[in-house]
Amino acid sequence: MLIEFLTTPQDALDPVERLGYDAVVNAAARAVAKYCEEPVFQLLLSLAGQRLLPGVVAVLGSLSRPEAIPYLIDALAEDECRPIAEAALEKLSHAARHALTQAVTTGSGSPEIQSPSRARQRQSALGLLVKMAHSSKRATPIPQR
After folding, report:
1. Is residue 91 a contact partner of residue 61, using CB atoms and an 8 Å limit?
2. Percent above pLDDT 70 for the chain
């Protein structure tokens, strides 16, 4: 029943209706997460491709699958989703590095031309790369003399 609800597109034009619908989608996504079968994962990717919602991003992040990386990087641009996406990308550290580097460098153009959300996304991706670099340096054993 929840999967059926998630696969039925809703076009709520009223902002209050949209907010209510988004809340239900977030809850439904979290509920179906326990069924980590491939069709459910693909459904979650499809939902993330339509609209990034914190519940959907949280579930995708919790599954730690590299296929979710592009959606998690997109979620860095969304204030509500950024902390969730950052935590998930940190867990996917090695697998996410290349995509994070691309997010920082692609379309880097003039800061005056960038949208504020794109600037926040790039800043977040850069912060994650720096954090990952520091973590890998700490994990490397210091040679003994």
Report:
1. yes
2. 88
The answer to whether 71 touches 57, Cβ cutoff 8 Å, is yes
For 120, phi and psi rounded to 5 degrees?
-65, -40
CA distances from 85 to 26, 73, 79, 108, 117 (A): 15, 7, 10, 21, 14
103-107, 118-122, 139-143, range with the lowest pLDDT: 139-143
pTM of the model: 0.83
Listed residue (32, 38, 78, 31) closest to 54, CA to CA: 78
d(CA 83, CA 77) in angstroms, rounded, equals 10
Decide if 104 contacts 75 (C-beta within 8 A): no
Helix segments in 33-115, DSSP class H: 38-50, 54-63, 69-75, 82-91, 93-105
End-to-end Cα distance, the chain: 64
With both helix axes pointing from N to C terminus, report the angle between 54-63 and 15-32 in degrees, rounded to the nearest 10: 20
Neighbours of 75 (CB within 10 A): 29
